[in-house]
Amino acid sequence: MSESLKDGTILLARILLMILFLIFGWMKLTNFGATVTAMEGYGTPMPYLAAVVAVVVEFIFGIFIVLGAFTRPIAIIYALYVLGTAFIGHPFWRFSGAEMIGNEINFFKNISIIAGLLLLAVTGAGRYSLDYKWFNR
């Protein structure tokens, strides 16, 4: 695979990996009161702070990943965040029937997203990124 194709693929992967988080991070930001209420519903400690963290990670860090800024450390932080949300937001083992199935799907979706984030932490953001511009001179 040519370097240009590899770097273009990494850029596309960064964008595709973050679409979900950018959409829902924006929704959390623009409906912040509802986000705090949802955090309370999950039984999250310090729901206001948890909502702030969710917005920062999903929306702000999502933009950073798309732009390829500080990609490796942010991808690791993101992976830990997604692992936490898998256990807090999708505890399928507590449910039965359709509710269990939906949560199980979302739990393992999060695990798959973690794999992509870890791969990004290993590969870096590629040539089409701010990381490349800032750190490869």
From TrEMBL:
Location of this chain's protein in the cell: Cell membrane
Membrane topology: Multi-pass membrane protein
One family name in Pfam for this protein: DoxX
Gene Ontology CC annotations of this record: plasma membrane
Keywords: Cell membrane, Membrane, Transmembrane, Transmembrane helix
Residues that span the membrane, as ranges: 9-27, 47-67, 74-93, 113-130
Family of this protein: Belongs to the DoxX family.
Protein name per its UniProtKB record: DoxX family protein
